[in-house]
Amino acid sequence: MLGVESGSRQALPLTSAAGPLLLVDQEGGSRAALRQALGARGFEVTAVGSGRAALTAVAERPFAFAVVEMRLGDGSGLALVEQLRRLDEATRIVVVTGFDSFASVVMALRAGAVDYLPKPTDPDTVVDALLGRGTTLAPVPDTPLGIDRVRWEYIQRVFEQCGRNVTRTALQLRMHRRTLQRMLGKRAPRPRGWPDTASGSG
Prior knowledge:
Elements: E1 19-24, H1 28-40, E2 43-48, H2 51-60, E3 65-68, E4 71-72, E5 75-76, H3 77-87, E6 92-97, H4 102-111, E7 115-118, H5 123-131, H6 147-161, H7 166-173, H8 177-184
Helix pairs in contact: 4-6, 6-7
């Protein structure tokens, strides 16, 4: 769990598609691409690769916006979202992650995120989410979720209920810990007819 000392901050006004933005993503390529795209759209981007570095940046200055990856090498993106929210309730936080599930969407919104986007995503969609413009909901597939997706969603839900503790989740599911770790590291199975986001650009 990441540690931080809470405190009050002066809220930054939400005026236009420009302002100080904190980008937190441990994947260097993804972080660099999104940093460049958001910078070109008027944001003043501070990009870091860990939760600890994010908290250091926040201690030095306030941010009007934040984009946070769910999986971080030194902790949970959800925990970071909660801490950013406690530090400054005015910060508009969007979770952008390659590990999307219904359970994690709910948890992210409860933690204080204003939206949740699966990778890869268009930078303009990220901007719309940050500014509260339009809709970012994924289209509903023509076919129902397959058994692989249903199973994956169930595992993700139990994982969240167990506080994202792999050992506790494995015991709850009566599954070998290494097997569970492999499954948690995989992207969500897509049903037939679902847009192939894996081949998109972002």
